[in-house]
Write a structure and sequence with these properties.
Four copies of one chain form a homotetramer. By secondary structure, chain A is of the alpha/beta class. In chain A, 34% of the residues lie in helices and 14% in strands. In chain A, the strands form two sheets. Chain A has an eight-stranded parallel beta barrel with strand order 3-4-5-6-7-8-9-10, surrounded by six helices. Chain A has a two-stranded antiparallel ribbon with strand order 1-2. In chain A, helix 6 (192-199) links the parallel strand 8 (170-174) and strand 9 (204-206). At the A-B interface, helix 6, helix 8 and helix 9 of A face helix 6, helix 8 and helix 9 of B.
Chain lengths: 284, 284, 284, 284
């Protein structure tokens, strides 16, 4: 079976946890628990700014938001594209939050990299090897989501694809796998967390929003992920989920996100891990 | 779609959490977190007593141990049968721990009930409706494990089968579902916990041993289960897992179980839930 | 990994195909393709007789019909029980078709055996080992359905359970497995047919009704099963599927069943396999 | 739920079967059964030519062969790239067989299109929407493989992505889905064939090589696919599978492929469908 080498923790002595600095003073991995939050799609300047300010106040260390959206149907909202990138840049300027956004195509990387601090590879593209190679040649951190039916072995080999091109700043994100169960959108593979933490030195985040597809399950699964050893979370937040153009059912409101942060904090405390924060001087 | 009624939390006002008293002073469900522990199979009087004492000291509230084992192969060890029941009775007498053991056949219920405080229905029998009906007519508490490919809807309907026969003392146990992932024996469906807690008033336990099949994953998943709101755990413990006749790979040693208990305690504390304990006067 | 021995084709020379005689002149396995048909549940004397006559005329060699039904909900129709057994006996007397019916409980075997020529073990009970052992001690042929999430290895080990008790008249039935796909009730594992034919000497049937859950898919999958090497089919037929008390959506009408038989016949012919038939003298 | 429109058969009257002409005199879809065959990877000029001649003689209508290979590991053989394209062009010139080869990246389309008659989108890229859009803007036929865990709805929406860009020459290929079963590499979803033939007017092929991962299962599943109504097959053939650089276990030898063709022919005959053939004047 093919093996991962660069991604492996296995060495003598074992490789310590990698930390990925995504902006001045913002690090993913290591002791602190990092929470990335924001809307599924960037839908407008105001909603984005409102969300960014809300999640920053609640303790998020980075803003997520889709500009180019991979949608199952060609007739569904595909994202605002370049206009969304401008809005993300503006939100970063105002709030100081670094930006995580998805890239779908090798030809988009330069454009997206002008704004993004972290290039996200979505679940559908986890085995899009030319895209993995392309972000492997960029100088941006990469947030790699597990494919819907990818084994952990395949997930780590996807990370290895990025790393073999020279970019070692890879952050893994478990986001649920596809099973027969229909009560949730996907099934969060909670065991993936301790397995990945043992197998690899890369930081491991969890996305409880996509894993469940239901807002009321996000906080319990966020708590579980922290307790299982995750290095952080990626969570969908929308100022008005009922009007969201995508994924409204799984988005938290800003007050619900604040509540989630308050609920996970003591679990992080049990593990003697602080919640990450963006230094005050970064934001206006 | 067929609906569960007796198992449902839905009522006006919503039904409160059911507590199941399995022995004098030992209750599953409610505020306390309850941990059931013991060997996969009862392999002998000494190993059972050693395990029972060890898990009791570490904080378990009940002893599990298989007398009749449902094994995939007819040539695998099938359990010690009636001799094991005697050993379980002895261990209970010595330690005061109530006994949880599996019943495979309606014709065994009377025999097993002489010793068991809780009748376990294993995952393979979750849709063995004549067995469900038979334990539904007994006066023992029932621990019902989720089938390997049962939806949560089907799981609750299995509980409903027991309850329609008059026995409402049903404890649910999530133990992992079958997926494509091969890194673990099963995939723990962590979202099942908050979903079940919302849908039903019955207590919800988690079995991290069967869910993962690997001892080193038991404690992280036990922590996650508590954080997600489980009412307790069922864990395999063996004095010498390398020599176990079944499931050795997933069994904790007694010191590892003690360590697990120490690790879950502060997570329970975050939720203001005590770990259950067996009253001192119960044991010699 | 535990191995099957009695069920295995592996011997020197390899064991030839087993044929299971289920009644005078009615054999499952061997060169002929055998089709078993009838309603999901026996709902009444007239509907059963009408169906039995219809499927016999169309070429079925045995009548299936549930007397005791394993239903997901305790509130769903559970079968007519003993009354249904009488109806099955009557239909057999009139049509000469041997009877296949499910047994759910070891305590039912004597009762059901008075009428049944073949004891069916349903998918939910494939790992109900006490039931497997009990039918293994009976003198009736056993039709064993694959569990919804059973591997082929587990399926063969379930057959081995029956055979170790002395009953070697086991017929296997692939009926679909549980996957993420929601367009069908289950996913027919068509590769199971050549794998089982290679691994075991036991006859292999396919149930395209449960595999798909949709009547319009039954005939194409029946044709595929024959082409892949199946020894026969088990198909649900109802005189009026829209009024069926269970599984109406997947039942063929009698004319549709007749059409299915006409469609599979030339595929069997390609393989130089005749469709089985019940000798004329057997029926009134 | 998002709907496919261009791919749908639903119209008044229902849309007839689409035929896709991939070269002069070579059509996929319609009455004839079309078989595409060739090596997983193009490994050299001689092996490719030998395979092309062999499969052409046996009745294949097109040659498949990977130049750019999507491999799970970055350390596995990734294909010969442009050199392989030259070899494919040469094999086409010599044998007259049109060429099907995979494209992994929008930036490769022009290069690959100089040689390919059909652009293949692999299973891992079924939801690589920028690649789908890019081939949708090309003037080449597209062979779209189902994703490993894609529902049929998602599969048809992926076809719709291509078609909305103006390219309606889309050929669908079922190649197995990921399940818990480990006896095969994937589980062929045989019901996908009649479902797709009912839902869409596009041609539907089946890849029994990837579906099973085992050479001895290819022919039985090829027969089943034809019987279920598939419009053709895509099969891996290698002159010496034991020395193949990829997928050797699932490749047929040239004589085995010839035998497969002889086995499927009478099944096609039952359906009154001829096996497609390349006109003699096309080849040297």
């Amino acid at each position: 079976m093919p093996a991962y080498t660069l991604a492996s923790r296995d060495a003598s002595p074992p490789r310590p946890d990698t930390t990925v600095q995504i902006a001045d003073g913002v690090v993913i991995g290591g002791r602190a628990i990092s929470v990335i939050a924001g809307p599924c799609s960037v839908e407008g300047r105001d909603m984005l700014l409102q969300t960014a300010r809300g999640v920053r106040t609640a303790g998020a260390v980075a803003l997520r938001g889709g500009a180019f959206k991979p949608r199952t149907s060609p007739y569904a909202f595909q994202g605002l594209g370049e206009a969304a990138l401008d809005m993300l840049a503006h939100a970063r300027e105002v709030t100081g939050l670094p930006v995580v956004t998805e890239v779908l195509d090798p030809r988009q990387i330069d454009l997206v990299s002008r704004v993004a601090d972290v290039l996200q590879i979505g679940a559908r593209n986890m085995q899009n090897y030319s895209l993995l190679a392309a972000v492997g040649e960029s100088n941006k951190a990469v947030l790699l989501k597990r494919g819907m039916s990818a084994t952990l072995q395949e997930f780590l080999l996807a990370a290895e694809y990025v790393m073999t091109r020279g970019n070692h700043a890879v952050i893994l994100c478990e986001r649920g796998i596809r099973t027969f169960e229909t009560a949730t959108r996907n099934t969060l593979d909670i065991a993936a967390i301790p397995i990945l933490k043992r197998e690899t030195h890369l930081p491991v985040l969890v996305d409880p929003s996509h894993a469940t597809g239901k807002a009321h399950l996000v906080t319990p699964l966020a708590c579980a992920a922290i307790a299982a050893g995750a290095d952080g979370l990626m969570v969908e937040v929308h100022p008005n989920p009922e009007r969201a153009l995508s994924d409204g059912e799984q988005s938290l409101t800003i007050p619900q996100f604040d509540e989630m942060m308050r609920r996970i904090r003591p679990f992080a405390g049990v593990l003697d891990r602080p919640l990450g924060a963006v230094a005050l001087q970064r934001a206006s």
